[in-house]
Amino acid sequence: MITVQAKLIFESFEDRQKTLELMRRWSSCMRFAYKRLLEGYDRNSLKKDLQGIFDLNSRYVDDAIMKAKAVLESCKQRGEDPRKVVFGGRELFEKLKKRHINGKPYRKLKIEWQEKRKGNLYSRGDRSKKGNLNTRIVVNKSGTFLRINVGDRKYIFVRLSAGYKKGKDREEILQEIAILEVPYSVELKLKNGNVYAYFSVEELFPVTEITRENGAIGIDTNAYPNHMTWVEVDRNGQFISHGKIPMPELESGNSDKREYYRWQYAHEIVEIAKEKRKAIVVERLDIKDKGRRGDFSGRKSRRIRHFFSYRSLLYKIRILAKREGIEVIEANPAYTSVIGMLKFAPQFMVSKDIASAYVIARRGLGLKEKIPANYMKFLNNLDVSSLEELKEYVSKEVKNIHLRRKQIKEIEYVMRKIQSSGSESGRLSAPLDGTSAGSCSAGYNLWRVLRVAVVTPLSPDRVLRDMSVLKRILVSGQVGRPKIGASSCFLGQGL
Predict the structure, then answer these.
(1) 290-300 pLDDT tens trace
(2) Which InterPro entries does the UniProt entry name for this protein (predicted)?
(3) Are residues 380 and 335 in the same domain?
(4) Residues 217 and 357 in one domain
(5) 118-164, pLDDT tens digit by residue?
(6) What is the number of domains present in the chain?
(7) 441 is in which domain, residue-wise?
(8) Beta bridge partners of 279
(9) Is the pTM of this model over 0.85?
């Protein structure tokens, strides 16, 4: 949906009062309909009664019932009591109840609450009516106007002052909407004594011409440090090229500034896909880390959400790609970093972020990842029948260095997953291609075991950034922290 905001400029005081009276009656109708819906009334019985009570036509009444029903369903989905809804805002209502607020601050709060409670009007668009029947955009030689039906087949014309935003003339957009005769919804709101109109129209995307048949570009976003990596693959999933886009502007600044740069980075990715004629594969992102206390209150969790909104950036990439006729594929992001770090980073001698983007691109094409043969030999020779044995092995490999709490939790998680899957003592049984997208099978558990048993001995005290040491493991099966002049070692033996 595209939404355009415009300010209403009334040519007479009488027209303004008629509009405010219409908004007051519609807001009352919506609140009345909400109460009746709580009592079990249906839409058809309400529609006839409300027209006479509030002196509104059937379209206005139908829109009021629809809005009331949306509020009711939203309360139920959030698990709130629908009988305790406060129209106008509970926060403002609670402030007004405080007795220590009086005088000018109290009057200001009361006016703001009444505007939110009584200054609303919503009118849906209709394709059969070529736009919107009750609130229609009218373009003539004098400018752009909004024709409002105030009842009894009487209309008032109000000038629209849309202004500019990011180099685009909003009034020209409204004129295009009126000329195309597409259905658009109009919502009027009263703010600080002014009436604003919000026009929403469904965006029509062109036919998708750039598809996965030509290959894909995988996108991986990273918060620390702030950057976005991309990898180009052909239709068979073969590695072609890669790149990195630093995003330092997302670390600080106000919300408008960060929003501007998110659009710029999204445009950059879409231009790359358009130039290479490749589909775009993004993560199906669902951040589940709620912080240490489970309420998004952790310091790292808060910072990620405040300064680096993954979801907003990927959403912009999807929208811009659809406007250019580029196919957008959503891939399951589970274990993409682990697979990329263990398998592809040492093969192509790239960073784990680029390797993760490569896994995302391949997964978007429907390809599965097999565990390398040397890794499977190591897993089959490793006894993971007990948690203590896995801890003992990892501790031995890291020269008895005290394991960090995060590493111990990782080991405990792996053991719970393995034991719950019913693996036999002494062996990890799973198919080689156990990383199919959309599922968390035993294959994912194997990749997690590899991360604990292979990466932790190599880098127990810090995050492993240089993946070149893993290449000799893939080739010879060596594991541990290699030293100059040390004899060759094999997986599971240690140093």
Answers:
(1) 444 444 455 55
(2) Cas12f1-like_TNB, Transposase_put_N
(3) no
(4) yes
(5) 999 999 988 888 888 899 999 888 888 999 999 888 899 999 988 76
(6) 3
(7) 373-476
(8) 216
(9) no
